[in-house]
Each structure stands twice: as C-alpha cells, then as structure tokens.
Amino acid sequence: MASAAVEHFLKEDEEVKGFSFENCRRNAFLAKQGAEMPKARKTGTTICGVMFNEGVVLGADTRATGGSIVCDLNCEKIHYIADNVFCCGAGTAADTEFTTKMISSKMELLKLRTGREGRVISALRMLKQYLFRYQGHISAALVLGGVDVNGPALYTVYPHGSTDKLPYVTMGSGSLAAMSVFEDGFKMGMNEEEAKNLVFHAIRAGIVNDLGSGSNVDITVIRKGNVEVFRPYQVVCKKSERAGDYTFPVGTTVVTSSTEMVPFSALTVTDEEVMEIS
Fold first, then answer.
1. How confident is the model at residue 17 (pLDDT cuts 50, 70, 90)?
2. Cα separation of 56 and 85, whole Å?
3. Number of C-beta neighbours around residue 30 at 10 A
4. Tens digits of per-residue pLDDT, 231-248?
5. Which of 59, 118, 209, 259 is the most buried (most CB within 10 A)?
6. Which residues pair with 52 in a beta bridge?
7. CA separation, residue 231 to residues 54, 178, 191 (Å)
8. CB–CB of 49/39 below 8 Å?
C-alpha cells in the first residue's frame, strides 16, 4: 500500500528535464506520513592540509568525543600510511584507525612487490575504492598528503568515496573555521615555516569555534625523503587548576549504619565437594 502510494506520488506524464528532484519530493512525502528522516552526524574533529614549495603540512586537533562527552584529550588523528604518505582522519575513530591501517598494510605489500617507493595516488585509489564499496557507511573523512616522484600531493577523501585534489583542504566539524583561515592566508609558493604557521592557526580556529574539536594541535611535515612529526605542536586548551579545596573532613556526612566487611583471607573452608563433569 505504501509503495503504491509513493509510486503514484512520483508518477509524472511530462518529460523530466534538467536536475531530478524526485528524491526530495519522496522525502517530503515520507515525512508527511510520519517517517523519521536520518540526521547528519557531526565528526567532532578539525583536520587540514596545505602544500608548500617542498612538501605538504598536515594538521589535526587531538580531542575525541562520544556525543557530548570528551573521551580522549590527546587522540592521535594523523595516521601513518607509508614513509612518504600520511593521512588525517575525521569521523568514527574505529573506522579511520582500521581503514588507514589496512591501506598502510596494502601500501607496504605494494612496495615489496614492485621494489620501489609507493605513490600518493596509489593510496588514494585504494582508499576511494574501499570507501565507495560501502557507500558511506564507513564513517571516515580523510585528508591524504605525501611526496613522491611527482612531487607533493594533497587530497581529500569523503566517506562515500569521492575525492578532491587541492592546494589546501579541510575536513571535520571545524572545517569551516579552518577554511576561513586558509582562504585568508594561503598563497602559492609558501615556505615551510609559513605553511606550518598557517596550519596551526587553521586548526586553532577549529578548536576555538567548534565544541567537537579541542586540546592540542598536531602537525606533520612531509618532505622529499624526510618526515617530521610535531606532537604536540602547541597546546591550545590548557586544563585549568581548581579554584578551591574540595576535600571534606571526616564526620561531615552523618553515618546512619555500617557493615563490617570481612576480608577473603579471613574466611575458612568448612565443607568442600568436588563434582565430576561428564
């Protein structure tokens, strides 16, 4: 009955031209029938990358959240793929961790089979095919960067498998704040210090303006034949000290009743029975 009603609602005699909005009309119809539409999920992360004249700089915050709860203050979000390729992950922590470890293993096997250093585009191909296979159900939004025989390369990989190649990229719930810093301060041909400073301020903007991002700024600099990891590059959210003393003297709370606990070592065995299991 419901499927017949949807088909009747979507039926059109005229020829459809241009963009098709049938799914939008379908969703509106289902919403009127009381169906609950799926809601977008926040990634709770700020990750970014930028290219400079000799390599790539990747940056990430270190706060891991579960809903409104901060689960980890110092989570590592920049993952190793190969000696010349690293990847920042946003989304579900388990998905990003497992996905990057699996691609890292495949890149090592590729290196052993070919006898040469892996390329960034090879890791990109593996990532996008793997994520596309699961149609976005693996919550891994990635920033992939590295340096190979073709020079520095920087990509974004979305959970459903689509990719972008740009000189500066951001991902995560704090990406809009980070992108505003990039659009204001990016310029072609930057040196390493300028790139590191720009990435730091971009991640800091995400930490300050997004509740899902926080704690420290991690930065990884990838050059030809050399990688430098700064963990942390700088602490942004320092834990404040307690303003008062919260220890209470004995007797503050009235004890209404008490039970003496007997330690296990004080117990004696009075009866013992051994049962056979057939």
1. low
2. 10
3. 15
4. 999 999 887 787 788 888
5. 59
6. 55
7. 21, 19, 21
8. no
Per residue in 41-64, is it b (16+ CB within 10 Å) or e — as a string?
Answer: ebbbbbbbbbbbebbbbbbbbbbb
- Could you check whether the bond before residue 232 is cis, i.e. omega within 30 degrees of 0? yes
Question: In the block, which residue shows the tokens 């959210």?
Answer: 237
Active-site residue, selected from the candidate residues 45, 65, 99, 170: 45
* pLDDT of residue 169 exceeding 80: yes
62 and 77 Cβ atoms separated by less than 8 Å: yes
Cα distance between residue 129 and residue 219, in whole Å: 27
Q: What are phi and psi of 146, to 5 degrees?
A: 180, 180
Contact 154, 56 (CB under 8 A): yes
Q: Confirm if 63 and 214 have CB atoms less than 8 A apart.
A: yes
40, 94, 76, 45: which is closest to 212 by C-alpha? 45
- Alpha helices by DSSP H, listed for the chain, are 2-10, 22-32, 93-114, 120-133, 175-185, 192-209
pLDDT at 27 over 90: no
CB 88 within 8 A of CB 78: yes
Cα 210 from Cα 175, distance rounded (Å): 9
* CA dist., res. 183 & res. 198, Å (int): 10
234 by DSSP, 3-state: which?
A: strand
Q: Which amino acid is at 12?
A: E
Q: How much is the CA Rg of the chain, to the nearest whole Å?
A: 27
One-letter identity of residue 154: L
Q: Let me know if 161 is exposed, middle or buried by CB neighbors in 10 A (0-12, 13-18, 19+).
A: middle
Confirm whether 45 is a catalytic residue.
yes
